[in-house]
Amino acid sequence: MRMEDFFRDCLNLLSEVTILSILNKVAGLASATCNATYCIAGTVTDEDQFDTMVLYGFTQVEQEILCAPELPGKYRINNIRGSSPANLTGNMLNSEEYQIFPDNKPAISNLLFIPISFNRKKLGSIILVNRIGGSHFDAFDEKLVTFIADYAAISINNSTVYSMIAEHERELARRNEDLALLNEVARISISGHDEQEKIVEESMLQVMEYLDIELGEFFIRDDEDPSEYKLIFKRGHSYATSLFGFSSVNLGKGIVGKVAMTRRNYILNENEVNIINQKGALAVDMNHIVVMPLFTSDGVVGVVCYGTKTVDEAEKLNLLFLSSINSWIATIIQDYRLKRESKRVAILEERQRIGMDLHDGVIQSIYGVGLTLEHARLLTKTDPEESGERIQESIKALNGTIQDIRSYIMNLKPARLTNENLVQSLRRLTNDFSSNTLVVTTFESDIENIDGLSSEMVNTFYLICKEALANVTKHARATEVTVSFKEKEHGYELEVSDNGVGFNPVHDRRSSSHGINNILARAKGLRGNFDIQSAVGKGTMLTVFLPKNHSEQQEQAGK
User: Fold this and answer.
1) How far apart are the C-alpha atoms of 327 and 244, rounded to whole Å?
2) Residue 378 maps to which CATH number?
3) In this structure, are 251 and 223 located in the same domain?
4) b/e per residue, 27-49, with b = 16+ CB within 10 A?
5) Overall domain count for the chain
6) What SS3 state is found at 248?
7) pLDDT-wise least confident of 44-58, 304-318, 386-400, 515-529
8) What is the DSSP string of 143-171?
9) Is residue 326 part of a domain?
10) Average pLDDT of the residues in 215-234
11) What is the chain's mean pLDDT, rounded?
12) Has residue 3 got a pLDDT over 70?
């Protein structure tokens, strides 16, 4: 072989990217360069044993003799340990460390061993056996094979790097697919589905498609009975019920119920999988079936079953990733349920608000109109003109009440407050009360122009005052009433007092007293205080205090 061809062949080793192709070229080149009968080229493990191995020059019969029956594709050939070259003939081959063939077959007359090393780490071995036409391998042979080993080391290292890069790229591709699935699940969470079944169905279909899962079932915890789980999704079989023969299961019963109770995955064993396959209802026979819980801080919200037809052990379901996906789905379900519950609470609060507004506003206004009309009826014969004026007042009041009803529906303050500040509204309310009831009524306030109050605070004071005056009309039988509104250091205070019959606030107040309860609820709603003082025969004084900081916070929020 010309040296130009030898160096070209060595350089060509660097173009190979797989370990097997590198070893094949190394074995052929080393054998041809040194006229060796046999050549063994292979990579080694950390224990300095052959890992991947290539034989060159061996007949088919010799290869069959060297094959390891228990390991197909492997040979019973020992590596030469160590990182120092060895060029041996004669008695030197009797050492146990150079007995590379079992039973010394083929027989060895001379041997050349060159380690393949990179950065002082042994990567493999080149072993040449029985030089053709010579009693031993000479120093020049050793030099040339060492040169081959140097190039082989670089090529093997490059191949390892290429493999790592390829594996890294495969891992990145897999992670991108995982992220795509997570993005799809996240999209479902913000899709605004108004049905729990739709959320589950879309989530399960995405998971099954991305992960090539042929079988899927989903059991959801029942809203009315948390100990029961109902089947709401199934794919991959023709059963009318679940794969396990039921449409609902109680906590702790069967595989699904036990998974829900223990919060642990259950992997069906081979016998259990075979029993399911033998029933003939599956689209394809399963190799691997797992039942997994979906839980949040609210407990186990569901149980899911996945099944797949795997090719080998390495392709079993990735339970760790599935657990992550299940956590996402569980969170979506919990979020859906919280939103649904929030809507229910909002409806109840809205009903309560409308009820309070109707009682404190509309009903009291209608009650006042009734008193005015009653007064008008009494004046019909004695003073028709005055009676007509009272009727006109009642019509005007009814029109205002209609406006109030529209405002309450839109969660706005009463329409008659629109062009007035709070003090003006309270003064007008007091004057209307005096005109309707003929009770001597006084309004007192140490402030006239008041700005910066939130609409909620203005509306609350107005409705509380209206409710308090209505209670005086219904129960107090008073001849004098005083309404006062004052500004304090940290808030505002409304006081309504009368000289009526009074009552015992402890014993006489009924739980069904909507007026007092509404006043208390409105005051607490703005973090205020409510106090009522009364005694039999000594009148009643009602006091409400609302803090300024609430109004300031509302004003800042509006900005």
Assistant:
1) 24
2) 1.20.5
3) yes
4) bbbbbebbebbbbbbbbbeeeee
5) 4
6) strand
7) 304-318
8) HHHHHHHHHHHHHHHHHHHHHHHHHHHHH
9) no
10) 91
11) 83
12) yes
Whole-model pTM: value is 0.42
Contacts of 174 (CB under 8 A, 6+ apart): none
Among the three residues 412, 440, 460, which one is the final residue of a domain in this structure? Answer: 412
403 and 504 co-located in one domain: no
User: In this structure, is residue 7 part of a structural domain?
Assistant: yes
3-class DSSP string for 202-223:
HHHHHHHHHCCCCEEEEEEECC
Best CA proximity match to 45, nearest among 128, 154, 122: 122
> Residue 266's domain is classified under what CATH number?
3.30.450.40
Specify whether 152 is located in the same domain as 229: no
In degrees rounded to 5, what are phi and psi of residue 395? -60, -45
- Mean pLDDT for the stretch of residues 8-29: 92
Does 495 score more than 90 pLDDT? yes
Report the distance separating Cα 532 and Cα 192, nearest Å: 48
Higher-confidence position of 192 and 209: 209
Residue 487 backbone phi and psi in degrees, to 5: -100, 125
On whether both 447 and 530 belong to a single domain, the answer is yes
- Summarize the confidence of residues 255-274 as an average pLDDT: 92
Q: What CA–CA distance (Å, rounded) separates 491 from 549?
A: 8
* Same domain, yes or no: 422 and 518: yes
Contact criterion met (CB below 8 Å) for 125 and 85: no
Task: Report whether 406 contacts 472 (CB < 8 A).
Answer: no
- Is residue 497 within 8 Å of residue 543, measured between CB atoms? no
Which of 317, 350, 380 marks a domain boundary? 317
The CATH number given to whatever domain includes residue 443 is 3.30.565.10
> Does 172 fall in a domain?
no
Stated as kind and residue range, the H or E segment containing 359 is none
Q: In the predicted model, what is the mean pLDDT of residues 298-324?
A: 78
| Residue 174 belongs to a domain | no
Pairing of strands 110-118, 121-131: antiparallel
Q: To which H or E segment does residue 188 belong? A: helix 139-189
Mean pLDDT, range 311-336, rounded to an integer: 74
CB atoms within 10 A of CB 25: 22
Considering the domain architecture, whether residues 222 and 152 belong to the same structural domain is answered as: no
Conformational region of residue 494, where left means phi above 0, alpha means psi within -120 to 50, and beta covers everything else: beta
Domain that holds residue 558: 418-559
* 139 shares its domain with 196: no
Side-chain-side CA neighbours of residue 351 (13 Å): 6
Residue 26 phi, psi dihedral angles, 5° rounding: -65, -45
| 404 and 355 together in one domain | yes
Provide the pairing of β-strand 266-267 with 248-250: unpaired
Omega before 115 cis (within 30°)? no
